[in-house]
Amino acid sequence: MNLRYLKSLMSPQDGINRITCISWAPNNLKLAVAIADRSIVLFDENGEKRDKFPTKPVDAKYGKRSYQIKCMAFSPCSTKIAMGQTDNVVFVYKIGEEWGEKKAICNKFMQNSAILTMIWPPERDIIVGLEEGKVRLCNSKNNKSSTLYGTDSIVISLVFSSSGKTILSGHADGSIARFFFEDDGGGAQGKIATHRCPPYALCWTTNTIVAAGCDKRIIVYNHDGRQVQQFDYSHDDDEKELTVAASSPSGQSFVVGSWDKLRVYNWSPRRHAWEEAKCREIKNLYTITALAWRKDGSRLVCGSLCGAVEIFDCALKRTVIRNKFEVTYVGLSQVNITTLESGQRTNMTSAYGYEIDEVKVMGRDRFLVAHTSDTLMLGDMETNKLSEVPWQATGGNEKFFFENPSVCMVFNAGELGLIEYGSNEILGTVRTEFMNPHVISVRLNERKQVGIDDNKKISYLLDLKTICVLDLTSGITQCTLSHDSKIDWLELNDTATKLLFRDKRLRLYIYDISNDIKTTVLNYCTYVQWVPGSDVVVAQTRGNLCIWYNIDVPEQVSMFPIRGDIVDIERVD
User: Fold this and answer.
1) Chain segment 40-49, per-residue pLDDT in tens
2) CA 14, CA 290: separation in Å to the nearest integer?
3) Cα–Cα dist 106/90, whole Å
4) For residue 354, what is the DSSP state?
5) Which residues, other chains included, contact 470 with Cβ-Cβ below 8 Å and sequence gap of 6+?
6) pTM of the model
7) How many Å apart are CA 509 and CA 501, to the nearest integer?
8) Secondary structure class of 359 (helix, strand, coil)
9) Distance CA 304, CA 301 (A)
């Protein structure tokens, strides 16, 4: 990954005008910058200034110059910003979803000392590091604070793991401590390492912990706190202290800021080590005081001692698919897909850190398919549901079918795999040689039934004359239906309790699965379909349209003469 300069969001001032902290919203639509006059400037995703609002002291009687903003973090919902101040208070401001909404304080957390660092992990509450050495949790629901753990040294940095289940704190005495909310893959809780200097620059990548500070050395630790790599710039007279660090969302890169420099490091899976990329040197930027990486990994923003805010593009490569989609590889394991017409973005990230091969857009320009060395990644850009499942390399011989909006059907070497969008496990696999969407029907909780929470079933052909209905949740075969003629179409109803099928002689049948009853419905059927969201059946026989409002009584059919052929059914409520 390399940094490409895009533009300056704020110009530097003559003299010290420190940018104290920068934060990107998790939805990637807002950027917040805390400036020296204790105001917050809000930018949109394109770096255009959209809003500005002042912050407040803990008490108006102390005056507006009685404090500094030391840290800031967006809420997981991107509608709130938490501020940590030196006057011993954390304020949470509600800024809303739209630009220009009124800003209001919705939470206030009093502490016993200054707040120096802060994080707000996904699905967690606010975590702050205090000057007195404590790490505390601020619950935004009940407006109460509690101590997670305490130390004898000032807390100067906080970071959380990619899962959000574990946090690290850096302290002024050089110690680095770890705290688990939940089990996150082992390791000891408590102090795990002692850095050579205060680790002001601390970040957590996929495989390692990175710490740096005033000794001009970047030390890489493994998860047990053992040093595994070092980058030493202490003999470089042009280098000054390393002040801040940030890891890319994929954990495959990190950036360290110092005097006039942004140093970039990329993970090498082949060497299983970090490699330094070309250093980005910016004359007269002076000390870099803040770094923030956008959650989709495509942008990096830095702030300086003199008030400059610069934005950089982070990309390994870019490709355009059919002049409709731009695919940006922002890391080995992270790809952003942008729809050029609408500007909609979809982010694909390998949860295992595997390198993503070519990304394909398939299925009426709606679905994404990508391979890694050991997994298959799928995505629905319309619902933004993404999946990554274990997958053995097959040489790219799979065939993908996207007829069902809830599940992708993957066929390879006589085996059909079902992957539900948004799930990271294979829903089920069956053996069949007949991979035609017209003879496979999958239903996944499409219409709720009383007393049934999980209703996932598939009907498919065992051979040309035999239908199998399988419960995907339990893996139990519900029924096997033999017929006297070849079957060319079948479909379950929404609740998967009834099966419609047609044979090569154009005879239409209804099969009641629970009662094991097969009934002939229509002869010479040229078209048939369930009406979406109901048990109503529409079919055509020669010049007649046939409708069954109660398919349990097949002889009660409404017939209407029509011209032409039915091609599709659309339900309009």
Assistant:
1) 999 998 889 9
2) 19
3) 11
4) P
5) 428, 430, 457, 458, 459, 460, 476, 477, 478
6) 0.75
7) 5
8) strand
9) 10
Task: Give pLDDT tens digits for 388-400.
Answer: 999 887 777 889 9
Q: Which helix (H) or strand (E) segment is 366 a member of?
A: none
Q: Is 570 exposed, middle or buried (0-12, 13-18, 19+ CB in 10 A)?
A: exposed
pLDDT tens-digit map of 292-320: 999 888 889 999 999 899 999 888 888 89
Beta-strand runs (E) in 161-297 = 166-171, 175-180, 190-194, 201-204, 209-212, 217-221, 227-232, 244-247, 253-257, 261-268, 273-276, 280-281, 288-293
Q: Which residues contact 423 (CB under 8 A, 6 or more apart)?
A: 387
Give the C-alpha separation, 496 to 512, whole Å. Answer: 10
Q: Which residue has the tokens 């401590």?
A: 177
Q: Residue 301, SS3?
A: strand
Residue 319 and residue 324: Cα distance in Å, rounded? 11
Paired residues of 390 in beta bridges: 375
Burial of 262 (0-12, 13-18, 19+ CB in 10 A): buried
The tokens describing 501, both together, are: 């099928």
Phi and psi dihedrals of 307, rounded to 5?
A: 95, 5
| CA dist., res. 95 & res. 40, Å (int) | 11
- Tokens matching residue 7: 């533009």
